[in-house]
Design brief:
about 425 residues; alpha/beta; FAD/NAD(P)-binding domain; 3 domains; 5-stranded parallel beta sheet
Length: about 425
């Protein structure tokens, strides 16, 4: 570099943190100033939210200070973003601070928008209607589940896209385990209500997961588009007038991009997500704006593994951009997800833009079983938390696990 450059990162979650730490390793402070912005200093390990309602995790185990996850030499600003000016290359914070940038990385994820669904946050909210997608909701739901002994539990996805698309299914499976362990399963019915035409978005995985729902006596209601949640009458009401009654509803609200996106002309789409090249992860709104994780509008799953795999590709492209070289269109949409199925077992799925989840093993012929319940997968999911804090966020590579989806070990003919 001929002179110091300013690199600004919006968001100190998974993507923003790993990107900042990787950049700090790549460039000395004299060549690159790195400023990271977030609205608070609570870094939540979001996969842990699933376990909180069932007493399998506690808030103090899954929350750490954001600034302490960042390497030395990174400037952290704890203040909400007011707007981004992509014409003048600057970010304005709510306290009036202006951060000029030569390159910008947007990693502010997706946010819950419960107020967008009629009735959701009215009568019954946090009493008979909950969500586990944030810490207050997960904590309140833990208290509710501890006294829920009979009735109808309904898990409802309002609409896609959502963070971690498999988490609502995991909640249903863990609820089956939890109520069985507490001796009340026969007195509680569980219903899974989705706007999709199946249990999941990918056909092979959807069929496997639907079979599991049947096996666990969990009712599946598909193509239900929730228009209203009536907490007083305790029912979901579809746009077509159909209804699903509940005694306890666990609702996954609509998701959108961060609020500042709507106040930043030319930055995002109508949902607040950033138009992004599917393979380079460079935004299509400005050459010096890049996007990582859930904030992008790409057709990949909004899951932590995606952010991890994107990160490796993105860092190479940011380096190329800063040094005036062409970018590589190499991200293939790779994602994988552990799916907790209860009773200390889990499934694993691995897929990308072109290939749906297939049976076999990951990452090769000898590895974790795919599309099959296994105690080994359950252990893998539990072990990931340690890797998250000490490996992924620190910007470390995993030997033998690159960003591209492996094909070795998958059984295409079986699918």
């Amino acid at each position: 570099m001929e002179h110091p450059k300013n690199f600004v990162i919006l968001g100190a979650g998974t993507g923003g943190t790993l990107a900042a730490n990787r950049l700090r390793k790549m460039y000395p402070e004299s060549d690159l100033q790195i400023d990271v912005v977030d609205q608070d200093n609570d870094h939540v390990y979001q996969p842990g939210l699933l376990f909180v309602p069932f007493g399998l995790a506690f808030p103090d185990e899954i929350v750490r200070p954001r600034d302490r996850q960042l390497h030395d030499g990174i400037n952290y600003h704890e203040n909400p973003v007011e707007k981004v000016d992509i014409e003048d290359n600057k970010v304005t914070l709510e306290n009036g601070t202006e951060l000029a940038y030569d390159a910008l990385l947007i990693a502010t994820g997706s946010v819950l928008e419960p107020g967008e669904t009629e009735g959701l946050t009215d009568t019954g909210w946090m009493e008979s209607v909950f969500s586990f997608y944030d810490l207050p909701g997960a904590t309140a739901l833990a208290e509710k589940l501890s006294t829920f002994r009979s009735g109808r539990l309904v898990i409802n996805i309002i609409d896609m896209p959502i963070k971690c698309p498999v988490a609502p299914l995991e909640f249903a499976f863990l609820a089956d385990w939890f109520f069985t362990e507490n001796g009340v399963r026969e007195d509680i019915s569980i219903t899974y209500v989705t706007p999709l035409d199946g249990a999941f978005t990918k056909p092979t995985a959807s069929a496997t997961l639907a079979e599991l729902l049947v096996k666990k006596n969990i009712e599946l209601v598909t193509e239900f588009n929730t228009g209203e949640v009536d907490g007083e009458a305790k029912k979901l009401i579809g746009y077509d007038g159909t209804e699903v009654e509940f005694d306890l509803a666990v609702v996954i609200p609509l998701h959108g991009g961060a609020a500042y996106v709507h106040d930043s002309p030319g930055l995002g789409d109508e949902l607040g997500f950033i138009p992004t090249d599917n393979q380079t992860l460079q935004s299509t709104v400005a050459d010096n704006v890049f996007v990582l994780g859930d904030a992008a509008d790409i057709p990949a799953s909004k899951a932590g593994s995606v952010t991890h795999f994107e990160g490796e590709v993105l860092m190479e492209n940011i380096e190329a951009f800063l040094e005036g070289k062409p970018l590589e269109a190499s991200y293939d949409g790779h994602a994988n997800c552990f799916i907790e199925t209860g009773f200390s077992k889990a499934l694993l799925i691995d897929f990308n833009y072109e290939t749906e989840p297939l049976p076999g093993h990951y990452p090769g012929p000898v590895g974790l079983p795919l599309l099959k319940e296994s105690r080994l997968n359950h252990i893998g999911k539990l072990m990931f938390q340690s890797f998250y804090w000490h490996g992924l966020l620190q910007g470390r590579d995993v030997p033998g696990l690159g960003p591209n989806m492996p094909t070795s070990g998958k059984h295409t003919a079986d699918a």
